[in-house]
């Protein structure tokens, strides 16, 4: 005779599994996965022994909790704002112990500050989740979800998901231009290096596709020479640093070309190029048109343009973050992130190739 206690336990377990399955299958917001660097890291580096972290004040001063979370922002970052627009809760960092059960079905953020396309980028930060690590964790994530809802539903969840990957800036700032004469500068001129980086990026995107990603936003670099850190390091009167600007001008069109070619090879518009340089150029060139007082000076920092060192409690901190295009020496403010995300959703082909995110969502809802 069956054990009544066991039967009850089994029934409860099956009910939980069924409820979880229904939560996913009956029109829940699509899952969202994030890969990349500090522009999109929302706390993975908090769990790693690295100096590339944003888990102390005044980071997070404008976040809903007013506490640092590991986001390199005064408040919300780009993934948070995309989740908001999708009607979904923010994805948790993959290393966060709270990412279990139903929360796994929301997606996960694998990003880690300091990394690049190349594995030798950001070596000074030591223990960070380089892209091969992030993709390995994505595989592990799928195994964990398969145990929850089954392999077939997991594949569907991943195929239907939106993916954001943000890489490239550190391959210049924290590799090629890290020192006055770097190993990569000896090896390549800037055009050769950019082509090499794009070739390596293509391999990463192909691997992401192999792992089931079918809608992937791929952001280019911003105007690298115009961030406060580079103005402080390289310019004498506040102008954008020429060599870094040249690098971004070479890299971003190559990225669009590569994505177009990769989509043609696959036979579908899997990858969407996000022209972050054009988006940021708008408010860097004409800050007052976007309600900013300045796009040269960071809100938090020290030295010229607040572009030297880290943002800490000892830093100069602006009273109104919405007046600054840059929060710290490298990262946009929450308000600037909102402008970027709005353009991701509604921007013309000047900013989004081959289509914006609103168009993607309309196509995918049919």
UniProtKB/TrEMBL annotation:
The keyword Transmembrane does not apply. It comes from the Eukaryota. The keyword tRNA-binding does not apply. Keywords: Hydrolase, Lipid degradation, Lipid metabolism, Signal. Transmembrane segments: none annotated. Residues 1-19 form the signal peptide. Belongs to the 'GDSL' lipolytic enzyme family. This is Uncharacterized protein. It comes from Datura stramonium (Jimsonweed). The lineage of its organism: Eukaryota, Viridiplantae, Streptophyta, Embryophyta, Tracheophyta.
